[in-house]
Amino acid sequence: MASQVLAAKALRGICVAAHKPSLQAEIYAEKNQLYFYLCRYLIERISWLCRDLRRIVPEGDGRVKIIFSRRGGLSYEAFRAYLLKLKNFDDPAVQINWAVVDINGIEAQDHSKRAGLQIADIVASSITSGIEPDFYGNCELKYAEALRPRMYSRKGNYLSYGVKLYPWADRLALTPEQRKFVALFEVRD
Prior knowledge:
about 190 residues; two-stranded parallel ribbon
């Protein structure tokens, strides 16, 4: 029901999902390294969405307010330092639109205190249920189907914008149900 309610709202969702078993553990050996890397992809897409919508949403100053759901063992100061490193490193692979990201304004709050954090969880759970098998090995695509119109797309492209899979789906051994999920977001509007 939650995904159906969100599907009727004027919002855009972005989800970054990683297939951890296919990643080389030694590459992401440091604490929170994979989490930071995936957050980079998320912030990249959020910055693109802000860029794309700025013309039609004139409220505010055009910058995004990034609020994480507080989780133990994560240093948000270390994450801010990671973003500053990316910003100053001048790597063309990092495509964050820095003009809309307020690195110093990044904060963490308790999940129960912010409705936006709960909405983000609904989006993430809806997308995840379509690609991650449950206890019985089944994927449930209905929630992702409901939210598809609300996921960020650019020129009809969902998989590079609203749904980022890492690694790319073509590098994974997907089940037929998981292929249906990918096909749902591969179809361009």
